[in-house]
Structure formats: C-alpha cells, structure tokens
Design a protein that fits this description.
- The chain has 153 residues and is an all-alpha fold.
- 85% of the residues lie in helices and 0% in strands.
- The longest helix is centred in the last third of the chain and has 31 residues.
- The mean pLDDT is 90.
Length: 153
Amino acid sequence: MKKLLNAAHLYMIVGVVGGLYYRELTKAEHFTGQTQLGVVHTHALALGMLFFLVVLALEKLFSLTASALFGWFFWIYNAGLVITVGMMTLHGTLTVLGHDSGAAISGIAGLGHILLTAGLILLFITIGKRLQAQPQASTAGAATVAHATLQDR
C-alpha cells in the first residue's frame, strides 16, 4: 500500500512541476500557441496521482496486492505513464522552441499508450480475480449477521 501512496505522491509532484515548467517556458519564449505542455500537468495528476489514490482505495477494500498480476500491472502502467508524460513534455518543449518533433517521438508516445492500456487491462483482470475471491467471505459474513439478527428477534 505504501508503494501506491508513494506513486500517487510522486505523480502529484510531477504534475505540479509540469504545470510550472509549462508556464515558465512559454513565458520565457513568448509562446502563445498550442503545445502539449499545456496538458502534461493534467495527465500526471489525473492518470498518476488520482488514479493511484483510487487504486489505493481498491487495495484497501480488495487486497489487490495479493494477486500475482498486481506487480505486473504496477510496473507496466508506471512505465507507460512515464513514457507518455515524458514524450508529451519533449514534444511540447520542441514546439515551444520552434523545432519539429520527428516520427520517433510519436512512435515512442504510442508505445507509452500501449503500455498504459496493457496496465489497465492487467488492473481489471486483477480486480476481477480479487472480487471472485471475496464473495465467499462476505457472503458468509452476511449470513452470520442475518442469522444473528433473526436470533435477536
């Protein structure tokens, strides 16, 4: 669980720094056009910080880390997010500085998106497996509560 909180915290820092970088670079270069730098902070905060806070809550409820797939999800998703945000930052910086970004940047960004998608698929599989493992315990607990309630009447 600490790993999830640390990841959320790290992406919060990346998001804030990304927003600051966008503002300061565009101001220093007197740039007023569209650039991907404008959404780097949003991506880091939403796909990083908020996402991992939600996964932290799901971990608390369903013990996601008990699944062997959880580690795969965590590292693949993080790799995808780092690549995606990194390429957005590079592409946006090149745009502000007046340079073209090549096909390699788009290709690497695409790889980041593929890894994000694979990570999300692994997360949903993990959640599904943990939900299947949970009902027996929760059904037994509900039956016990129902039985105790009937006895109290």
